[in-house]
Amino acid sequence: MTKEKQQAAASMDNIYTLDGKVPLMKSIPFGLQHVLAMFVANIAPIMIVTGASGLSTQETARLIQTAMIIAGIGTLVQLFAIWKIGARLPIVMGISFTFVSVFCYVGPLWGYEAIIGAVMIGGLVEGVLGFFAKYWRKLISPIVAACVVTAIGFSLLSVGANSFAGGVGAADFGSAQNWILGTITLVSCIIFNIFAKGHLKQLSVLFGLVVGYIVALCMGKVDLTALQGIDFVSLPQIMPYKPVFHPSAIISVIMIFLVSATETIGDTSAMTNTVLGRDASDQEISGSLACDGLVSSLSACFGCMPITSFSQNVGLLAMTKVINRFTIATGAGILILAGIFPAIGAVLATLPEAVLGGCTLMMFGNIVVSGLQMITNCGYTRRNITIAALSLSIGLGFTQVPDMFEVFPDLVRTIFAENCVAVVFLVAIILNLVMPGAKEQKEAA
Fold first, then answer.
1. Can you tell me the distance from the alpha carbon of 422 to that of 259, in angstroms, rounded to the nearest whole number?
2. For residue 226, what are the contacts with CB-CB under 8 A and spacing of at least 6?
3. Rounded to whole angstroms, what are the CA distances from 417 to 105, 264, 420?
4. Percentage of the chain with pLDDT > 90?
5. Would you say 366 and 318 are in contact if contact means Cβ atoms under 8 Å apart?
6. Residues 153, 187: Cα–Cα separation, whole Å
7. Residue-wise pLDDT tens digits, 212-257
């Protein structure tokens, strides 16, 4: 076999390359691992917002199904791109948690239809801005992106901890059973990572989820009632809600889209830095932002919420180094199937929160470390130290005491009071603009 044919042949070694061929059946476990890592986080925002907006259980179930299809489509667009939309990078997309707080403010006040209208407009704004990212990206210097990535990691730690304890609002939150489930899952991930050989080592998260799920079944912690009375095939509805374009809602949501854009830049930068060993190009940043915004507008046409890059999957990429686009695409295919065939989604939805929490702690920690590595790569000049120290201390510190924002208008409180990523972004941008350029040599802190 010639060298060219050898390179073209499907090989498991190609899971560590962007474009190599990988056997389909051997790709599926790695794609499934990405789906399981983000599945609950993909549907949780829908459940929270629809509950706050007064939607029925049937409407919520339909939107959960739509969310899986949109996440799969968005991931495929990021992987392979349509024109200039998409980064052609292994970025996994899903329903964004970033918008939950503002939607829980807009929904009860003006209705879910106002959310849909605002997402349509906000998505278009981010999508158009994405095409011109190379012009305004200068505002978001490497140190700003590094601070945002670090803040994303820290903000997700509480998400992982809440899942470990059973999920926010769970009747048995923090129970001994949840502690046991979370611990068994986490230990299973660690043990598998230590003793597995070769490519199998990268499936530690999937192994932990499977072990945790089996233990949960034995403990009676898996609710199988969701499998009763479901349709075999079901497709999402186009325009199930008539959009309402309320100016205040649109302004609020556009501001959060800008924050979401920063997270996407941070996720894309973190992925290329930690996995590919280089900075993200202008074209990759532009494509990822365009996909974020325009697919979010498409999502609104099906009555669903915005999508964005998922930080937990960036953490999984950093941990496993499995970046093959075809391999990740199998996960996108599973998501779409889960939406078209509700039984698949119903089975995945029975995954207990504590099991998910046991796996995500390690992944979220990887994001924190990635952010700190990015700060290190920027250099410890006085300027960079000041930007990082102030943005992180203000962003992480102030949002732990949300009552201190009571003096501000409702709109400001909605956006900043409990969103540390938004505060870190704002402070880092301001400091980056007002502080003199760094002319001094790198110094140790």
1. 6
2. 346, 349, 350
3. 13, 21, 8
4. 23
5. yes
6. 21
7. 989 999 998 887 776 676 777 778 888 889 999 988 888 878 877 8
